Amino acid sequence: MYKLITSIIRWLARFLGVFLFLFFAWFAIEFGIDDPSRMNPQLVKLFYTHMLMMFALIVVWRFELLGGIILVIGYSYFSIINHTFWTNPIYPIFFFIGLLHLFSWAFRYGVKLVKGNFFFRYLFR
C-alpha cells in the first residue's frame, strides 16, 4: 500500500507537469515570445524564472529531488518578484508539482535515510 501511494503521488506530479509544460508551450507557440532586450527588468526576471521552472519540469523526470527543489525555489522567486504568492490559478501548480516530487522522493528514499541504508547516489535519482 505504501508503494502504491508513493507511485500515485509520483505519477500525479508527472502528469500535472506534462500538462503544465504543454499548456505553456501552446501559449508560447500561439502568441510568441517577446524579445528580452525590449522588456523592462522585472519582466525579464519573470521570463527567466518562468523558463527555469519549465526547465525543471524536464529535469524532474530524471532527477526528482533536484527538479523538485528547482521548482519550489523557482516559484518562490517568481512570487517574490511578482509581489504575490497567488497570481492566478495556474502558476501555483509549479509549486504544488515541486512539493509532490519532493514528497515522492522523500517517501522512497527517506525511509532508507532513517534506517541508515542511504547512499549518496539516491540524491541523483
Please characterize this protein's 3D structure.
It contains four helices and no strands. It has 125 residues and is mainly alpha-helical. Helix 2 runs antiparallel to helix 3 (64-82).
Task: Compose a concise summary of this entry.
With 125 residues, the protein is mainly α. It contains four helices and no strands. The relative contact order is 0.14.
Write the layout of secondary structure elements.
Layout: H1 2-31, H2 41-59, H3 64-82, H4 92-115
- Terminal CA distance reads 22 Å
Overall geometry: elongated
Q: Which structural class matches the secondary elements?
A: mainly alpha
Radius of gyration: 16 Å
Low-confidence stretches: none
Instruction: Please state roughly what percent of the residues sit in beta strands, choosing from under 5%, 5-15%, 15-25%, 25-35%, 35-45% or over 45%.
Output: under 5%
Question: Helical stretch count?
Answer: 4
Order of helices and strands: HHHH
How many individual β-strands?
A: 0
